[in-house]
């Protein structure tokens, strides 16, 4: 004869565990939803707060968009998928401009779900985005900090170098009137007005011409997470990927 009396005590703990998992999942989704809403509020553009030297229209902006570098970016330019994913979005656009298109920002993490989730909640630092870029094998990746305005100008003028790309990391406050760290690639430089073409990856901000001095000030700020100065990532693609 089979003993069936032991099945009842086993089912009850199993049901309790299932309920706890379900409750935990609901709470996690609620927290992520609240963070997403708060994040979108933080990154929303306020054009009335933009610094006076920032241009979002005009002949100079139009002409820079028609340069070879800008055209390589704009043929497949995508805004960030998450409120916190400006770093991966910038890298994804850089890779696409070098004929390495990717469908999702998440693919850059190469299966590291924990790193992707951490980015989704807290964003990324300059060194973390640089490490993400290096892991793609695209070429030489350098983190540049504490650059003078003249050093920045020289670097921006070098954007005609085949395969060279720049991702700037800055505090939006001096430029956009919102105190929030951000990443975006540079799509060109206008030496006549000493302004760069900022390819802003956040929806609603669009393309902008930003004075070099203003961007330099925004880059010479401290990231509260890393406690290090912001700056930029210089990528020099290898011969296979250089344009």
From TrEMBL:
Domain Peptidase C83: residue ranges: 1-240
Annotated EC: 2.3.2.15
Pfam families, A to Z: Phytochelatin (PF05023)
Top-level taxon of the source organism: Bacteria
EC primary class: transferase
Cross-referenced InterPro entries: Papain-like_cys_pep_sf, PCS-like, PCS_N, PCS_N_sf
UniProt-recorded Gene Ontology molecular function terms: glutathione gamma-glutamylcysteinyltransferase activity; metal ion binding
Gene3D superfamilies reported in the protein's UniProt record: Phytochelatin synthase, N-terminal domain (3.90.70.30)
Biological process annotations from GO: phytochelatin biosynthetic process; response to metal ion
Entry keywords, A to Z: Cadmium, Metal-binding, Transferase
Name used for this protein in its record: glutathione gamma-glutamylcysteinyltransferase
Organism: Thiocystis violascens (strain ATCC 17096 / DSM 198 / 6111)
């Amino acid at each position: 004869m089979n003993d069936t009396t032991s099945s009842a005590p086993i089912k009850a703990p199993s049901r309790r565990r299932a309920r706890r998992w379900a409750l935990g999942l609901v709470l996690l989704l609620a927290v992520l939803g609240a963070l997403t809403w708060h994040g979108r509020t933080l990154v929303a553009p306020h054009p009335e707060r933009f610094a006076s030297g920032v241009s979002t229209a005009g002949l100079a902006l139009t002409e820079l968009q028609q340069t070879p570098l800008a055209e390589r970016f704009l043929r497949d330019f995508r805004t960030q998928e998450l409120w916190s994913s400006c770093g991966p979005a910038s890298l994804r656009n850089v890779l696409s401009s070098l004929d390495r298109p990717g469908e999702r920002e998440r693919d850059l993490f190469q299966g590291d779900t924990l790193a992707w989730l951490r980015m989704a909640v807290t964003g990324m630092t300059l060194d973390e985005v640089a490490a993400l870029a290096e892991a793609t094998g695209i070429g030489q990746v350098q983190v540049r900090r504490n650059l003078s305005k003249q050093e920045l100008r020289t670097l921006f003028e070098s954007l005609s170098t085949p395969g060279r790309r720049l991702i700037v990391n800055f505090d939006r406050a001096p430029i956009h009137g919102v105190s929030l760290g951000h990443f975006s690639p540079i799509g060109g430089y206008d030496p006549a007005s000493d302004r760069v073409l900022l390819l802003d990856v956040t929806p609603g901000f669009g393309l902008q011409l930003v004075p070099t001095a203003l961007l330099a000030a925004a880059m010479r700020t401290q990231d509260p997470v890393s406690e290090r100065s912001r700056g930029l990532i210089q990528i020099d693609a290898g011969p296979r990927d250089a344009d």
